[in-house]
């Protein structure tokens, strides 16, 4: 019988380049033949340790990593929970060809990057937290500023992740970048303000705009809609002579409300590609909600067809097709994400008006509970008829009173890879809705459910039904009065789960916590657990202890656990978290 090792080397290389780093590591440990193959120069040049089973500093000690260290060009460590300078430096000394490094959303900061660069001087493209030191106020001496300037002068592309205060409301960052000559500069303002405020002395400093071809700014807060003031009010933007740049800004207040402001060179692009009439961008334009600002230097940028082709691919995920319920329109080719708001069905308006029950609201509510509600059947075969894969967001407005069900034999079910359901208070899902959902949607990898209905707890039904899904990797549930014990137990049988986000909106009592050890033990692919609930401080501490004990016992250092107390005003470290990025809470994200 023919073995896989009998295949020609060129065929094996094609297979190898399609595998993730965890699979390659398992492959490396099987036999000498594979070890020799994977260790060849140029076979593996990237190592992705972010949001997967390799998200631990222990990956740097693996035989595979050591054997290919001298070949690696790129390492992604975004969000790896256990990185420290002392643990990573020995490994970086062996990375002689490394060009690209992402250490954002970790415990490492600019001073650690300085130490890394001292042993790995080949770095040209870096993503790092814009933090220097500990505490709420950090004083930087002139010598430290000069060291930072020398560090950033070595790079061609820089992406800084920090707070709005430090990145945009202060000119300090441009002082750091004074000597830099950059192709691309990116700022992600995502960290909760006032966590790290940097104060510089002396104050009589002349600030200069660093050299760059492209500058992108991402303002992201997925927990609240924020207004930022005019562009000219940002010290960083006020330093730019806008006449020297071509710019556009995309604002998004929720999943579908997108507005665009642009200089004239981009107006045709947005009209033809996304059917959007961009408004004229000026210093008085105002970022609202989540915003992305893209700036190009006119002198160094060639705005040709290739430029616009790349731009289209880059920002395409920001835009969804807004489908009007029951319209005979198929989704255009340029959209992969569909947003829709189901409308009241025939026979439903009398329920909304209360025509049958008079004007007494108490009588209306009592009668409504005894009356069968009209059903909203989710059928999107026509709008998705030309799609092979699709992402679908369905929002039921709070004014709709209906029972939601799934029809049999719809062809769009197998096309869904992402589904978001946001229910109003008067929405009720049919008894078999979630069983059918996971039975029919065989390729669904991501499900986000928001169920604020106070009378029924859907998270338990969802967790029970999810066990039959062959593909579910990411699950988010927003509910009231979450039964954590049974939810944990049910989800422990979902072998494909990689990330879980549970949000309990219960406000009238403290939720009962439960030990998630069984969940951590049995879900072998689980990399992230984020829980938000009105917990007491002692309950939060107990949950952390259970999780950390289970991580140690079952040898899962890569698992990231975040437990936020809803009552704590400063409970969040980040307003945008890459671990919940897959749930599309807002389309604006770093690209």
Report on the structure:
- This protein has three domains: 72-318; 320-432, no CATH class; 445-591.
- Helices cover 26% and strands 22% of the residues.
- The protein has 19 helices and 25 strands.
- Strands 1-2-3-4-6-7-9-13-10-11-12 form an eleven-stranded mixed beta sheet. A nine-stranded parallel beta sheet has the order 14-15-17-19-21-22-23-24-25, with helices on one face.
- Strand 2 (74-76), helix 5 and strand 3 form a beta-alpha-beta unit.
- The two termini are 47 Å apart.
- The model is unreliable at 348-359 and 364-371 (pLDDT under 50).
Give me a quick take on this structure.
This protein has 591 residues and is α/β, with parallel strands linked by helices. It has 19 helices and 25 strands.
User: How many structural domains does the protein architecture include?
Assistant: 3
- Secondary structure class reads alpha/beta
As residue ranges, the low-confidence spans are 348-359, 364-371
Helical fraction: 25-40%
Outline the biggest β-sheet: 11 strands, mixed
Give the CA-CA distance, first to last residue. Answer: 47 Å
Q: How do the strands of the widest beta sheet line up side by side?
A: 1-2-3-4-6-7-9-13-10-11-12
Q: What is the number of helices? A: 19
Number of strands: 25
Rg over CA atoms: 26 Å
β content, as a range? Answer: 15-25%
What shape does the CA trace take? globular
Oligomer status: single chain
| Overall pLDDT | 86
């Amino acid at each position: 019988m023919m073995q896989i090792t009998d295949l020609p080397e060129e065929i094996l290389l094609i297979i190898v380049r399609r595998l993730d780093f965890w699979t390659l590591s398992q492959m490396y440990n099987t036999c000498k033949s594979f070890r020799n193959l994977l260790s060849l120069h140029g076979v593996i040049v990237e190592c992705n340790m972010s949001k997967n089973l390799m998200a631990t500093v222990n990956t740097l000690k693996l035989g595979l990593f050591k054997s290919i260290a001298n070949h690696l060009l790129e390492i992604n460590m975004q969000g790896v929970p256990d990185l420290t300078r002392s643990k990573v430096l020995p490994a970086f000394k062996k990375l002689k060809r490394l060009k690209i490094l992402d250490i954002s959303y970790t415990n490492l900061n600019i001073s650690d990057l300085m130490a890394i660069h001292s042993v790995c001087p080949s770095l040209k493209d870096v993503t790092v937290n814009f933090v220097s030191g500990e505490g709420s106020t950090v004083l930087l001496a002139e010598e430290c500023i000069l060291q930072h300037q020398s560090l950033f002068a070595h790079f061609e592309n820089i992406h800084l992740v920090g707070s709005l205060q430090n990145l945009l409301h202060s000119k300090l960052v441009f002082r750091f970048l004074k000597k830099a000559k950059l192709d691309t500069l990116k700022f992600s303002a995502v960290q909760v303000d006032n966590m790290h405020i940097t104060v510089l002395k002396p104050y009589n400093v002349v600030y200069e705009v660093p050299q760059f071809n492209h500058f992108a700014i991402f303002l992201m807060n997925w927990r609240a809609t924020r207004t930022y003031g005019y562009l000219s009010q940002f010290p960083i933007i006020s330093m730019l002579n806008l006449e020297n740049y071509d710019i556009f800004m995309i604002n998004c207040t929720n999943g579908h409300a997108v507005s665009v402001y642009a200089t004239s060179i981009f107006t045709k692009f947005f009209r033809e590609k996304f059917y959007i009439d961009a408004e004229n961008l000026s210093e008085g334009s105002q970022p609202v909600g989540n915003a992305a600002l893209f700036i190009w230097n006119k002198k160094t940028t060639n705005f040709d067809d290739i430029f616009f082709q790349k731009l289209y691919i880059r920002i395409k995920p920001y835009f969804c097709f807004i489908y009007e319920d029951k319209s005979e329109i198929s989704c255009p080719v340029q959209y992969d994400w569909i947003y829709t708001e189901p409308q009241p069905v025939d026979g439903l308006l009398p329920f909304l008006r209360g025509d049958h029950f008079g004007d007494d609201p108490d009588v209306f509510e009592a009668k409504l509970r005894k009356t069968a509600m009209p059903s909203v059947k989710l059928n999107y075969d026509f709008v998705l008829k030309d799609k092979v894969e699709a992402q679908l967001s369905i929002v039921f407005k709070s004014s709709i009173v209906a029972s939601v069900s799934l029809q049999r034999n719809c062809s769009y079910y197998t096309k869904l890879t992402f589904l978001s359901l946001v229910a109003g208070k008067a929405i009720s899902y049919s008894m078999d809705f979630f069983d059918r959902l996971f039975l029919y949607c065989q390729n669904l990898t991501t499900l986000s459910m928001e169920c604020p209905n106070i009378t029924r707890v859907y998270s338990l039904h969802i967790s029970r039904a999810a066990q039959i899904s062959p593909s579910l990797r990411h699950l988010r549930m927003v509910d009231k009065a979450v039964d954590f014990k049974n939810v944990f137990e049910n989800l422990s049988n979902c072998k494909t789960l990689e990330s879980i986000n549970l949000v309990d909106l219960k406000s009238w009592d403290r939720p009962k916590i439960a030990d998630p050890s069984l969940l951590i033990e049995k879900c072998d692919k689980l990399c992230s657990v984020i829980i938000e609930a009105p917990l007491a401080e002692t309950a939060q501490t107990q949950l952390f202890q259970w999780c950390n004990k289970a991580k140690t016992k079952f040898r899962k250092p890569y698992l990231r656990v975040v437990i936020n107390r809803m009552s704590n005003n400063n409970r969040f470290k980040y307003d945008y978290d890459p671990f919940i990025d897959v749930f599309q809470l807002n389309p604006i994200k770093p690209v």
